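fwd from M.: "can u put these together and see what the complex looks like"

so here's what she sent:
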Amino acid sequence: MNAPAEKDAAKPSNFLRQIIERDLEQGTYAQRHWAGHPADASDHLKGQADPAKIRTRFPPEPNGYLHVGHAKSICLNFGLARDYNGVCHMRFDDTNPEKEEQEYVDGILDAVKWLGFSWDANGTSHYYHASDYFDFMYRAAEYLIEAGHAYVDEQTPEQMRANRGDFSRPGTDSPYRSRSIEENLSRFREMRDGKLADGAAVLRAKIDMASPNINLRDPALYRIKRAEHHNTGDKWCIYPMYTYAHPIEDALENITHSICTLEFEDQRPFYDWLLDRLAEGGLINQPHPRQYEFARLNLTYVLTSKRKLKQLVDEKHVSGWDDPRMPTIVGLRRRGYTPEALQLFAERIGVSKADSWIDYSVLEQALRDDLDPKAARAMAVLDPVKLVITNWDEIMGAGFLDACSAPVHPHAPERGRREFMCGKELWIERSDYEETPPKGFFRLFPGNKVRLKYGHVIECIGATKDANGNVTEVQAKLVPDTKSGTPGADAVKVKGNISWVGVADGVKAEVRLYDRLFSAAQPGAGDKDFLEEINPDSLKVVTAYVEPSLKSAKGDEKFQFERHGYFVADRKDHGEGKTVFNRVAGMKDSWGK
Ligand code: ATP
Ligand code: MG
């Protein structure tokens, strides 16, 4: 495995880790063999002892881009495999004969790799497609018929629904349930050979129409659907149902721990029923995989449904799958999130068996904790107004530029210093000046002294306003002999200091200030239309000035803009003469507000 992080023995335990540790201790899967590729029981048996201690899998449907919920599942499945000397398989669940879009396949593979994981292990690429198992699935279906465990039902869909019963009523046996094995087999082959119309019949498991678990009331295994499949073309006009296909995929791949979200809990008895039957028949390796369910990720202010995210893209509510406001992995990446931050997030939220909502601030805090020790610092003015130092020419000399510097990172002196020039004219934040200061305001107001960060102390004189009363320029006087880092600089005490960028060497930048995409904490909850809960102010674009060290910023490079938070050079639009930054997150949590 390509391990993204050191194995950490101190990782907090959870119910999945306990199950795996118990299985390892008891040697539950120690006797398994592995054919070197997915295979049935007899082929696996010919292979060597399975070199993987456990096998997990990540099985997306290639019908969209992955989102932060998938990131949780990826970190979980690949992370467990890494931590327990196992392997995690990358498997596309493509049993639905729908058009597989190469764009989605590529996007999913990129996302997993970017998160820091790999499906290569022991010299093998564990990259699989569920549709490669269609032949085996068919063979397994014939076996079930021959063993008396499946039948072809030709009731109409309405009859089938009516006869299924409900929570308070047991189901009623189909009149086709008692067909002979021979008749079932020939009818199933007719289904396969295209002799029956779409929807005219289904193959069903013969379990128990009175089971309190409705999923065990003879669930459908195969349906007739004339459709081209991207992998198998028109070879098949019958396709396996997901609930039938998934356990078989796991079994052929020697998966040990099949981890899925809670909504599949009621399917587990069928998962076991099916694999028990196939194991009895000697078709699949034993002991067979086990399914374990965990709570899906729900994140406040965020949608985690591919279908709804696709709607946002298709209806152009966002600029694309990688819009920095999207909770897709490509969106989070462009927003400035790092693989390490997402891994840290996944670790912190852990896994549980109860559904809950995670506060968005947990995701942001993981990002801050990852970036704080890494990101270079820089000064930036996001809402600029000009400050003129009226006595500059007299004290420093006309046209003189005073070289100032600051550490690239305050806790890593070895990373060197950034340099920038102070001059007569500077850009400062509009909010740093108040004509009449509110209580506790220590920045610029007439008569008050503040320090220009890394520079001199100045004393505010006043400001010029336009006809509407908007400040167009602030004026101040420089206090001599107070430059930061020089002897006696602290002789003049000030309560505030302000960030600034020189008019002479500042770099004009487009800065995109992102906010939550939805104004509701649980978008679309309670029958609300999620589209009506879109936050109209989720993007504000400003023209800012940033210090000259950022001229060499590369796309995707992250910074901490002092006072403002974390920013990233936009991976698409930054560069070639354009300076574009995205705000990833503020310095402090603003989500609780
Ligand atoms: P969506 O409803 O967004 O399409 P899905 O579950 O249908 O999601 P799949 O492509 O089938 O998407 O998912 C692949 C894997 O990711 C599954 O194992 C699924 O359990 C997991 N997964 C999907 N959404 C979440 C989530 N919100 N939290 C945790 N795991 C998730
Ligand atoms: Mg799905």
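replying to her w this: Residues 1-7 have pLDDT under 50 and may be disordered.
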